[in-house]
Structure formats: C-alpha cells, structure tokens
Predict the 3D structure of the following.
Amino acid sequence: MTGKLQLIADDYLPLRDVVFKTLRGAILRGELEPGERLMEIRLANELGVSRTPIREAIRMLELEGLVLMVPRRGAQVAKITEKDLKEVLEVRIGLDELAIGFACERVTLEQLEAIREAGEHFESLADSEDLTAVAEADVRFHDRIYDAAGNQRLNQILNNLREQMYRYRMEYLKDTKRRRKLADEHRAIYEAIRHRDTETAKREIRSHVRQQEETIILRMREEG
Amino acid sequence: MTGKLQLIADDYLPLRDVVFKTLRGAILRGELEPGERLMEIRLANELGVSRTPIREAIRMLELEGLVLMVPRRGAQVAKITEKDLKEVLEVRIGLDELAIGFACERVTLEQLEAIREAGEHFESLADSEDLTAVAEADVRFHDRIYDAAGNQRLNQILNNLREQMYRYRMEYLKDTKRRRKLADEHRAIYEAIRHRDTETAKREIRSHVRQQEETIILRMREEG
DNA sequence: TACAATAAAATTGTATACAATCTAAGAACT
DNA sequence: AGTTCTTAGATTGTATACAATTTTATTGTA
C-alpha cells in the first residue's frame, strides 16, 4: 500500500463526489499513470471508504473520458494518443474562438477588469518557482474570458476539453521565457476584447492556444 | 406501478449500461417528464434489478446533464429552461459549422455518397406517418456529416448537445411542409460539401439548425 | 379549523455479502 | 522441458443490509 492517494475531505458532499474529485485530481496530476488499473478494493482501502462510492466515482470518470472501462476487467486510466490530443485541440480552438467572439459582444466592464487582473496576476508569476500557481493563473485568465462569454454550457465543455491537456502542460510552463511570451499574448487578447475587436481576438486566441498545444503534442511524441 | 419502463435486454452489456440506455431513452422520449423524481427502489422494482445498477446509471445521466441531483433527495429529470436551450443552440451552431468545415476539407467519395443517400432517405420519408423514422433519418443525415468531419471528440460532443433538444423536436417534424423544406436544405448542404464550398456549407448549416431550434424554443415558450 | 410537536414511513447514502468471471499458479501428463 | 488441465485466488458485477436523513402522517392543543 503506497498511500499515494489522500481523500480531499468535504463534510457536506457525498463520498462519491469526494472520491471523484480525488481520483480526477490524481489522474490529471499524473499520480495515476495512463494505463494503470483502478482496482476497487484497493482504492476503497486506500481512501478508507467502501466500494460503492468508488464505483460511482468511476462511472463519472468514465463519462468524462478520464478512464476506460474494459468489461470484467474494470477501469484503467485512459491513455491519450496523439490522435486524441489533435482532436481535442481542433475542437478546443473552435470553441475558444466561439467563446471569445461572444466575450467581445457581451463583456461587461467588471468582467473586462477581471480579465485584465487575471492577466497581470499571471504576468507577476513569470519568474515564480511555484509551477502549480502559474498553471492556475493561466487557467484563471481563460476562465475569466469564458465567464464573459456568458454561456454556461460552453464553459463546461471547454473546461472538460482543457482537462485532457492538463497532465502534459506542466512541462511547458517550466520555461520562463515561454511564460513571458504567454503573458504578452494574454495582454494582446485582453486588448482585443477591450476594443471589441472580434477578428483580432479570434486570431490571437487561436495562435495562443495552438502554439501551446502543438508544443505539447510534439513533446509527447518525443517521449513516446 | 405503471409499468411504463421496459428494459432494453442485452446479454453482454453490464446492467448499469442497459439501465442507462433505458432511462436515457425514456427521458428523451418524454416518458419521464422534466422534474419527475427518479426513485431508486421504484425503478429497481420496475426494471427488475437491484439498486446498484440503477444508481450507477443515474451517475452517468447526471454527467450527461439529463438528470439533476438534489442532495438527499436523489435524482430528478432535468428541466430545460429557455436559457439552457439558447445556450445549447449557440454552442451547437458553432460546432456544426466547425464540423462541416472539416467535412468540406476531408470528405471522401464514400462519405459524400453516404451523405447523399441519407439526404434522399429523409426525403423519401417526407410524407411518412412514422415520426420516429423521420426523426432518425434526420439524425442520420447529420451523423454522416459528422463522420466526414473525422473527429471523434467533436462527434461525441455534438451528439450530446443534440440530445438536449430531442424531446422538443418531434412536434416540429409533424408538419410535412416543414419536412420538405428540411429536405431541400439537406440537399443544399450536400451540394455545398460536394463542391467543397466551406463558406456556403457553413451558412446553410447555420440557418438550417438555427431555424429548427428557434422554432422549438418558440413552441416551448408558448407551452410554458 | 389551524397549527405545532411527535412518531412513522420512505428515501438516499454507505457498507457488506454473494455470484460470476477472469487470472495465474501449480500439478499431471507427454 | 513443454503443454494442458485443474484449482485457488482475485476481481468485477449484482444484490442486500444497515445508517442517516428527510418527508409524511398523526396526534394533541389552542
């Protein structure tokens, strides 16, 4: 028993949701590796709950696409192929453009300010050692744009798509030069939204997302 | 006990998946009404299984957005508000344009033929009494386009979005005049793809989807 | 009758038990 | 030694049991 996993305690949430969040986080952080089997009894022991909430959490992970069910062999952490990543990238770029288009039409002054602030926060972490904080700041910037788009459903789908990339993204953010470049792009995106310049905003977001994710795909290919 | 539900038997599938499909179908066909509570013991009795597969199926429906969980009150069929439908419509149009753009770039001769065939099949049902067949033929036409787009992930997301509209769509298809109009639009869409005319294809699919779904939204508003 | 307090029933959340199936190790045989 | 058969163990799939909470019904009182 490695004790790798630790329940994220939360009194008022059903155990299935707590387990779901815990496993989801472990998969996205790479603590549970692609291909690794998720065995119910083992997980139940490790997390100190029964199999029931484990199984229900696995059903949810299955629909999120984070685990793959093999009949009579149970769940294993989904392996993401290069083809999968390319598909995700295509859809994500399309939806990011859609979102930023809506954002240009609908953004309020408060939301605009929130976007600016998130961008500056990311910039302030350009030289930080705390990679997790950097990653979260980046997520936050994009979330502020999704908020401005004013479409819950779109927001939810985009978040799910981003999830698929999370595990491979940390490496990218280690390079401080890259981070400064990202910060500049964030600023350009912000300015485009501020001027309600839909075309520019779409162009900027497209190259911003594409560049990052293509680098990630390349790196993945190197590693095999 | 009304005996409203009937398990879709399938030997080699786990019961949870069978129950999932059964409940999903019942919700989409409107046999389970929005707001209706899904009580586990009752469903278990009615379907002749235990609570375990029922619960797991409900977890899946939850992530599909077809049921809403209320803590300690269990699941109820999700009510779709006009706002929800508008959000779905926005995203669906965006993704349908994306898909048809890819289809124009990538469609093979076989796929093009499959699109044409699906369009003709729909047209042949223009005066049919069998509404279910008409609805399925329409789904099939769009599926052939999604196939041609060659992106599994996109396909999956689009199917999920369409699901949200299913319950409200039957009414629309009852009108044979409308059906003929749809058939004409299908033909125009097919022609645009055949000529790899991305711009026209996007314009056609946009108005095709928007018109249908806006009518559905209007009708829904009338009914309350 | 209306309202409050309490008790009973119903329902969900969680744990455990049992059944079916798969995996793997070891024995028997060639 | 290698191969097949058998058997024990492990694992998933399903059913049931128990606990906690909520809902509903009932009783008592003003």
